[in-house]
Amino acid sequence: MATHVGGGGGNGSGVGSGGGGGGSGGGDASPSLGTLLSTFYSSSIDAATRAAIQERLVAYQNSSDCIRDTHAYLRDTPPPVTAAEALPAHFYLGALSVYAKTQFFTSSPGQRDALFTAALRFLSACLPVDAAAAAAPPVPPYVVAKAAAVIAELGKREWLAATPRPGGGAEAGVGGGRAGGADISTTGGSRFEAIMFTVTGSVRARAAVAVALIDGVGDAAAGDLLSGHYTRLRQLLLGRGGALVQLLFSAAAGAAGEAGGGSRGGGVTPAEAAAAVRSLGGMLRLASSEASSEVAVAALAAVRHVSSMPAAASAVRATAFEVLADVHGAGKNRLLASDRLWADSLGHVATCWPSLAAGPPATPGEDAEEEAVALLRAAVLYAESVVGRFVSRGSPSHGAVSPSSVAAAPTSPPLLRALDSLLSFTSAVAGGGAQRASVFVAALDAWLAVLEPLADAAADAPIVHQLHGGLTALAQMCVEKALSRSNGAVLSALEDWEEDDVGGGLDGDDGEDVRGEGGSLRLSRDGVAELEALLGLGDPASSGAATTPFDEVALVVSGTAVAAGSADEAAAALSDRAAYVAKNLAVVAAVARLYPTTSARGLAGSVVSLLGVTLAAGGRGDTRDMRTLLQMAADVSPSLEPSTAAAQGLLSTVCRVLGASDNGVLAAAFRVLSCLTDAINAAGGDGGGGGGGLPTLARVASQCASSVHPPLSRYAAAFLCRLAATPVAATAFGTAPPLSAAFVAVPRVAGGGDRRAAALASAAAFRWALLPYGGSASVVSRLAPEEWAQRSAAWRAFATAALITPLNDAFGESVVQALARHAAPLLRLAVIIRATFAAAATGAGGARPADALWSAGGQELVISARRVLTICAQVLHAKRITAMTRRLGTGAMPGAGAAGGTGGGAGAGGAAGGAGGARGAGITPDAETDAAMTIGGAYVAVLASALPLARRREPSLSRDVLQLGTALLPPSPTAAAEAAAGGVGGPREAPLRGRPSCFSALSLLSLARGELASGDGSADALVLPSVTLALLALQSQQWHPPTSAVGTAVGGGASSAGDDEGGHSTSVAIAAVSLLEEALNGHWHLFWPVSATAAGAVESAGGAAASPAAAAAAIAASKATSLVEVPAGPEASAAYDAALKALADGVGGTYGGAQVGARCLSALTSLHARRRLFTRSAAFATCGDVAPRLLAMALRVAGITDDDAPPSSSSSAGIGGSDRSEATLPCATVLAPLRDDALAVAAAAAAANWERFVLVWLPAVLRGVGGGGGLSDAQRAQLGDRFRDARDRPSFVRAVESTANDLRFFRSSAMRTMQR
Questions:
Q1: pLDDT tens sequence across 791-831
Q2: What is the rounded CA–CA span in Å between residue 93 and residue 151?
Q3: CA-to-CA distance for 1063 and 1039, rounded, in angstroms?
């Protein structure tokens, strides 16, 4: 039957059936539906033509004739269905899907049966079972999937209509967009159920419908049915769970010709079998969450059986292993709370390998090889999820709650068998050549999942002893696989590129002397990111220290392209060969850590032996093997006792390597020596027993530190710095520094060291002079005054020549006029001075070294650093004044520039404010602005590192630095600015968008957090300024859609690097949230002090009590009264309110995406755990609009939102009084990773104030999200009823899920009603 399209008439759609339907415009003269659809999807038509065709198609699909034509088409299309029918079929199936969701329950039973039968017949025609029909060209998969999904939609509703809910009829409201919906309760049986679970019929067709049905029922937030109906459908589905599992297993096994094959299961393709296996996994998860153990066990057994079928396609078996890995890797699977099932899973792991061929596939060919590799990798992933989770979390019966608790429990025989079989498979696949290299690496990942938690267990754990032999053999095998001399064929076949950085130093020029046009410094995104790492700015998301401690080797690799990224990014940056070698070395290091007294010594002996053999050989291959062996030595050496023969032998052998000529080998050798400084100290200054001892070794290191090869120079300087911290260091140079002052003072281009090597040299000089004998306080205090004066004089001379004089020279009179030209030396010195202060802070020695450092140059350095910061602030202030004057002179309002900046420079403020959005408040972006912000931020970090030394001597330093540093940030709008703008105020003149401004903000936030966390008595005075600073930084990070452009840099030499997601700096927002948490959590007493007056009055009464009973009552009353907290002064109360509002807004994505929201949730959780935030009515429930705002944002993350109309209220003023009611928020899908944490916070806040939540907060939230969805009062009341008895957290979560689903249903119903 052909359907034709007319120009109009009939029902107005312009589309009719071939028999003349469609009115006057129908008939054979009109184009057919297939022709029209082909034209619509063609790339040759213009947009206007496509829009016109779409209008006609939509009108036809919504007409009364379309469902009739759909029935006729699905009923009369003869088998086999050809590919030419794909577009019309998909169109009609879409119309039937709309019918199922909007008209099913208002139609007659006869019409519903006819449509269901026709759709099922069409699906069966698409999936033939006989060989002749199967030989025809297949129907496109999207048509088959659409047909199955439509039948599942029809079937769900028929199933609900035929099976009334217990205790009455079915829930009203299911009838599409109708206000009340039809009563769907009937007394007859379900035709859908009879067809799906009959023993006759096509397995292919029924399995396809089952796949769609399980997917649809499992998605409880789809919104096409009410949550009550989904609950009922899950009950019905699990009631037929056994039959569904058998049907899906028949389809999966039918593709392999096993059970379920034959006439009814014939024709099942591997793709269909894989889909059936995935649905078995969905059934398993659904049954596990609903505690239907019998169905879950049956589904698990079916998936296991498919994974072990040798005749099944590799893709099908791989899918089965992936499903098993997902099930065992999930943390909320009730099914796995059984010891018996865990034992079965471990047993299955132990027995699944024989059916997997580790060698080449039986059928040659590239495709067969790829499928075989995918199968083996999936099997290894499954093994890793089972044994890794079992080892890390323990057997459920033992109540394991901490890592490696299974290690202390009685050994599990099934676990040992599983690990033994995995070891055998690893050995077999290791010999599979380069084609199996990825599988071998995956197997090593599985072993790391076992080794890492076991390494934290007690050394005498039974399982650790029983695995000793196998793991030692595994480590020795990894040693051989990492070397070209024993595994050259595989390593040479892997993708490779030369890596001379030896773990760091990829940036050879270090960004010091990269100059842009006109000699100004070009500050790239990577360059500033590296500077953040070199200055020790800690992880902004961490709740610990704000800055990272000084570490020599870490300073070598910090900020490089690999080290600056995550572990995944670092692994992705490696070549295949490097990743292969790195994974082997990781296993070697893990085994050495697990067995420090046995395997570590044996591995050290192997390294010594292989190094000795390699030293006698030459060539590039031997050089790379030497680097690998040295890296292995660096991994093994921390597990060795310094005085053992193994450690001393390794030290002696590595010292022999220093005679090599390859710079990469020498750099690797010094990296090992940095790990062996304790062994050098234990050797008593012998330095490895050859070549003149420690003095000679130190001189060689000094010579190598002067190398032009950056990695060698840095690792040699790091070794000298670490060597200086040992007691035997005085035997090498005495009080003289290991490197000259010129090495530190002069840039590398002039013969000095690069800034990393120079920083390490400066720290080493301080240790050598003022922290002798390992910094032992008792030894330092006993040094003779003459010797101490000599050491102090040596350090002063070095500091003057290397640090003070270069800093004063670099910051001469001309620096204010050409700040960017002086940026390179100033930033270099900032890294060096910060490393020196950090090394002094981490050293011991008591007060004597600190006093000497302060008097012998430290005070001058602090004064100079503060002067640098002051000048940077003055430069930025002058530029802001100039920009403001220019705008006022041209009549532009201050707010216009900010608007332009947000939009990427568009509009009237584009030149001044728009392009300057990445920098200061309306400042035209240029090199001077970038340099002022970057240099200022660097010296904030320098002064932060000096605070532990200067805090006692200059108590006001931290507050002065905080005030000066705040000038680096764009200011909030002042009253004067608003008056100049005619009373129109903006949220800010310009947000933090560029890397320089973000860098200065990060540095300042880290300083403030470090001071608040220091525990110093003067920290209380910094709390309110720190809160203001954090709010200022957060306010500049309001979320913008990712499509918004960043201001384009204009002006000489300035660069504008791309920002993070949404055009904002995630790091700044996260650091600001961390600072707010520290201020509130660590200094709660400033915001909610105890009422001293009430407590004192009670104490007086207790003292005057005449009887012991009265005294006891008075003391009890005193204790009770002492717990009463009152708000602090107006300034502290306002800061507290603003901080909580900022945290609440951050949950909903106001200041960034999921990362910032996660940090806000973590801060709120910490505040509740430590300060009982939600249960303090004065501190939370009655604190303005914080509670409803937090709940609205948390529920928004969980899906109770209207993304077209974000929730807002009349009192939703943002930080600092700015109105954020019009701020754009990220959609709920962006924040989906926060769902569980957001629900936990919302449940805790609601449970602590339940009555207020039910009566006030929840109705306000529902009013906020209902405006864009067109909800009625009755629908809002129905949504609110979900929470009436949801006091506990599981019930609350279920209520949120139901509400989110029903909200989607009400909105989609209203939309479908308007469309019709």
A1: 889 899 999 999 999 888 877 655 566 677 778 888 889 99
A2: 9
A3: 8
Q: Is the dihedral of CA 73, 78, 83, 84 positive or negative?
A: negative
Q: What is the mean pLDDT of the chain?
A: 75
Whether the bond between 80 and the residue before it is cis, its omega within 30 degrees of 0, is yes
Rounded Cα gap, residues 505 and 756, in angstroms: 10
Report d(CA 791, CA 54) in Å as an integer: 86
Work out the average pLDDT over 936-949: 89
* pLDDT tens-digit series, residues 1095-1121: 444 444 444 445 566 666 655 555 444
d(CA 321, CA 310): 13
φ/ψ (deg, to 5) at 1065: -95, 110
Distance of alpha carbon 1201 from alpha carbon 1207, whole angstroms: 7
Q: How far apart are CA 192 and CA 208, in angstroms?
A: 14
Look at the alpha carbons of 160, 166, 169, 174 in this order and tell me if their dihedral is positive or negative: negative
Q: Which residues contact 842 (CB under 8 A, 6 or more apart)?
A: 549, 550
Which tokens in the block code for residue 47?
Answer: 């947009």
> What is the CA angle 882-884-885, rounded to 5?
65
Mean pLDDT of 196-208: 77
Secondary structure of residue 1267 in the 3-state scheme: coil
Residue 1046 has pLDDT above 60, yes or no: no
DSSP-assigned letter for residue 32 = B
CA distances from 1231 to 321, 566, 1125, 1148 (A): 30, 21, 35, 8
Residue 319: the pLDDT is 94
Nearest CA-CA partner of 719 in 750, 694, 690, 746:
694
Q: For the chain, percent helix, then strand, then coil, each to nearest 5?
A: 65, 0, 30
- Enumerate the H helices of 843-956 as residue ranges: 847-853, 859-890, 894-902, 927-950
Percent pLDDT > 70 in the chain is 70
Q: For residue 308, what are the contacts with CB-CB under 8 A and spacing of at least 6?
A: 348, 351, 352, 355
DSSP 73-87: HHHHPPSSPPGGGHH
